Amino acid sequence: MSRLYTATNICLAVVSVIYPLIWYFGQQYIGVTPIAVLMAVIWLMRACLARTSYHRMISSVVMVIFLCLAFIRSATAMYWYPVMVSMMMLLIFAGSLFSSQSLIERLARFKMPDLPPSGVRYTRKVTQIWVMFFIMNILITTVLIVTEQWQAWAVYTGIVAYVLMGVLFVGEFLYRQFCLKKEM
């Protein structure tokens, strides 16, 4: 069961990353319904294998959305998936700011369980930066959808957004390794 859970999560991650390209190029050859059904099946597997009721609920909601899209066959609605993913990430990161430990702090504590107060402040700021990134990503993607810039949508959501995420991730890592090493 654990291997199937891991395989499903990897499959979902890969399909989510390449979804903009699958949708942009696939819609002209196979249409809305097969792609929406494929996404619904992957999210159904994720829901069935989820380890928490929260993950089961989120996965089920996304699955139902894709089933609805398959039923109504709305090509335009399929463009909103990257926005949904960014909204989920925004909720995860922003929600963690209201808990005792931000998401980045929780991740940092795997490596450094006794994180000093300066590290706690720093990880909270990094979490806030990720929140701002996801807000910006949602806004840009929404503008591209509303203005029907489909080619720009495919390039931005399929390439540019991931490059920006990588730059943010690597930039923060390098900053932490070289500039904050003394403080933390």
Describe, in plain words, how this protein is organized in 3D.
With 184 residues, the chain is mainly alpha-helical. The protein has helices spanning 2-26, 32-49, 53-72, 75-78, 81-96, 103-111, 117-146, 150-178. It is globular, with a radius of gyration of 18 Å. It starts with a helix and ends in a 6-residue tail after the last helix. The model has no long low-confidence stretch (mean pLDDT 87).
Features:
single chain, mainly alpha, 8 helices, 0% strand
Summarize the helices and strands and which ones pair or pack.
Elements: H1 2-26, H2 32-49, H3 53-72, H4 75-78, H5 81-96, H6 103-111, H7 117-146, H8 150-178
Helix pairs in contact: 1-2, 1-8, 2-3, 5-7, 6-7, 7-8
Strand content: under 5%
Helix content: over 70%
Judged by helices, strands and strand pairing, the structural class is: mainly alpha
| Major sheet characteristics | none
Query: Roughly how many Å is the radius of gyration?
Result: 18 Å
Q: Regions with pLDDT < 50 over 5+ consecutive residues?
A: none
Brief characterization of the structure:
By secondary structure, the chain is mostly helical. The protein is built from 8 helices and no strands. Helix content is 82%, strand content 0%.
